[in-house]
Amino acid sequence: MHTVPPQKIHLDTTVPGDYAIRITAREEQPDIPVPPDGRITFEVPIGSRYCTPYLFNVLKVCWSTPVEKRRVIAVVRGQKVLRRLSASDISKLETDPDGFQILKLKR
Q: Side-chain half-sphere of 66: how many Cα atoms within 13 Å?
C-alpha cells in the first residue's frame, strides 16, 4: 500500500466541528471528524485498485494518475461533499505558523 505524506489541514470556517474529512481511496473507511479548533492530521492510503494495468503482463496499456494528484480527500458536512482535494492541492494552500495548510470555507 502506497501513501502520501501525512496531511495537516487547518479548516478555517466559523464552526469547524460541523465538518469531516472523507478519504475515498479505500472502501469502508469512516469519516474523520474535524476538531473544534479546525486542525486535523490524517494519512491518505492509496489501495491496489490504482495499479497500472498491463496487457499480457508486458505492455502498459495506460498510465495511472500519480498518487499525490488523486482527488481522494473530501471535505464534507453531513453527507454533502463540499470540496475534493488531492495531496498536491493541499500542498499549494497557505501554511499557518504550526505547519497546517489553511483551507478556507464559507459557511
A: 7
